[in-house]
Amino acid sequence: LMRGLYDRQFMIPVALCLCVAAASPAPAQFTIARPSFGVPVFAQPGGTIQVEVKAAAGLDADGWGAGLANDLRTWTGTVAQAEYGSYVENDTTTGYRLTIRIPADISPEVFQLTIWHPGGGTATNVNAVGIVPDFESDFYILHYADPQAGGFEPTDPETGQCGKHGSIREIYWHAPALRLINPRFMFDTGDELDDPYYAYSVTNYQQYLAAMGQIGVPVVITRGNNDDLISTEDWRRTIGIETYSLAMGSFYVCQKDYNEDHFTAWLTNNYAAACTNPAIGFRLFGQHFSDSGCSWLPPAGQYPDLMLVGHIHVNSTVLSAPYPILSTEAAFTKGAVSLFEFSHSGTNWTCPTLTNLPAAQFRVMASGAVARIACTYDHPNDGTSPANTATIVNGIPLRFWSGRLRFLMPYATAGYDVSNGTIVAQYPYNQDSNLAVVVKVDIAASNTTVVGIQPSAAPPAANGTPAWWLVQHGLPANAVGEGYDEGDGIPAWQEYVADTNPTNAGSCFRITAASAPPPESLHFESSSNRVYGVRGCTNLLEGIWTPVAGLEPRPGAGGDDVLQVSNANPYQLYRLSVGLPETPDFK
Q1: Rounded CA separation 507/484 (Å)
Q2: What's the pLDDT score for residue 532?
Q3: How many Å apart are CA 84 and CA 89, to the nearest integer?
Q4: What is the pTM of this model?
Q5: What angle separates helix 203-212 from helix 168-181, to the nearest 10 degrees?
Q6: What's the 3-state SS for 308-371?
Q7: H/E element holding 211?
Q8: pLDDT tens-digit profile of 343-352?
Q9: Do the Cβ atoms of 381 and 407 come closer than 8 Å?
Q10: Taking the chain, what is the end-to-end CA distance rounded to the nearest angstrom?
Q11: Non-local CB neighbours of 346 within 8 Å, separated by 6+ positions
Q12: Given a cut of 80, is residue 503 above it in pLDDT?
């Protein structure tokens, strides 16, 4: 056992037999039906999500893998269960339902989801998983109705509009301002493109998604009447299922398609169950509009707490009783949105915004690409400067108390401190050469908010364990002693070296399986941010461990991993080691 690395031993006898495996068939392709860009799933760190995969039966339940990635790095999820049945598209189509455990150290951002299987291929959906530290905490959303892009570039540079409606370029202009405001999600009630721009091709919808993805938060979408030219199949492949529900703890969200009634029976039953479920404290319902097309109105006794619609392109109270139905000005009008705040107390949710709605309806753009809320940095925010200052100028008369910045910094063992903000995550990227520091900012209304970041003044924790890593996992900064562990016998500093979770006894560095026939194989859970090696020994009494020929230390693959040892090596005992990329000295 050494500072900077540690080992787990497993005895492998000399090979006694040879196993020959049959050639594997060519992988079949599958798709992730849900979550998707427009139908995301929300999870708490260390929690679980369910994923629906369209694929033929017969895939080994133990072969699935999952990764969650942002633009900087990838976290590996654990596939806890895989079931085959009628689990896809509101339980109408056969496929796989995967239960995936989210890493406890993941950052509260939005992630693309990649699923793989050796017999089925690989599939990726972008903007599919939103990480929320606490489902039952106060939050706000933005209602973004009718972006209705009629072309990529605007015909009017001052408004950003293309003809009478929106443009894809205009959405790119909106994105930085919306990212600063940082709603828990964007609530999009349809008309993504104007009819003529679709031209019977999904290409323009993909352009729309690329622009919306720049906002950096989950987007909850349904179809409007101007999305009628795209087929239902193409909509599902590009955006996601058109009618659905999702839950974040006690907060329930439902979206209904405006163009078709494929799932009305399912919706009726699902929504009724949410109304009788005592664990649900708020029901938010969305659709393109409420009294035309294939709209749906809940029956008496099952009224939602709030319904949001678009379609009419103005801020309006469509209905005030027996429940509120509200519309928001078209998003193509200089990024018009409505801010809805939700407050949690005990088992109940309230929406304080409803008492002063006009004040919460605003436009994010001033003119063209000039936003009413924007951020500048004293130094390039690219990971090169050891300290930085962000200046947020908010010309909107609203306070955004859950604003978000992400500083990109050089790696610092002790991490970073910020002024005028709260660090919600710090994580390494770029092969541990840099740290991303995610900061929650209370952005003052009609004012300037300045946030500074600098290396932490706290001394590095013992054994080289970064203080920021301990704090991020909810541990005290001195939780590095030999006796500090959560019950698995592994001290916290060793959990850091292995890139495992110090608050989960099931997460530790271990050999999960070993096979004796040549080549000998060591199976284990690896991290792509750590380096792994093998040394061999012929006599434990002598305790001489020497490098295994032809097996140099290498980065982990992330998730299920294996190191194979050629039977040409004379050893009978092998030791698997893990180390930091900068200190892979397995002695």
Answers
A1: 15
A2: 87
A3: 14
A4: 0.82
A5: 30
A6: EECCCCCCEEEECCCCCEEECCCCCCCCEEEEEEEEEECCEEECHHHHCHHHHEEECEEECCEE
A7: helix 203-212
A8: 998 879 999 9
A9: yes
A10: 9
A11: none
A12: no
Q: What is the Cα–Cα distance from 178 to 156, expressed in whole angstroms?
A: 22
- Are 353 and 307 spatial neighbours (Cβ–Cβ below 8 Å)? no
Which residue carries 């991303």 as its tokens? 436
Torsion on CA atoms 229, 235, 237, 243, rounded to nearest 10:
-160
What lies within 8 Å, CB to CB, of 511 at 6+ separation is 8, 10, 522, 523, 524, 576
Bridge pairing between strands 306-309 and 282-287: parallel
151, β-bridge pairs: none
| Inter-residue contact 520 to 12 (CB < 8 Å) | yes
* Distance (Å, whole) CA 206 – CA 126: 11
Question: How many Cβ atoms from other residues are within 10 Å of residue 333's Cβ?
Answer: 19
Four-residue CA torsion sign, 199, 200, 206, 211: positive
CA-angle at 385, arms to 379 and 391, nearest 5°? 35
Would strands 219-221 and 186-188 be described as parallel, antiparallel, or unpaired?
Answer: parallel
Question: If pLDDT is split at 50, 70 and 90, which confidence band does 460 have?
Answer: low
432 CB-contact burial (10 Å; exposed 0-12 / middle 13-18 / buried 19+) = middle
User: How far apart are the C-alpha atoms of 308 and 295, rounded to whole Å?
Assistant: 12
Q: What is the DSSP string of 483-552?
A: T--SSSS--HHHHHHHT--TT-TT----EEEEE-SSSEEEEEEE-TTSEEEEEEES-TTTT--EEPTT--
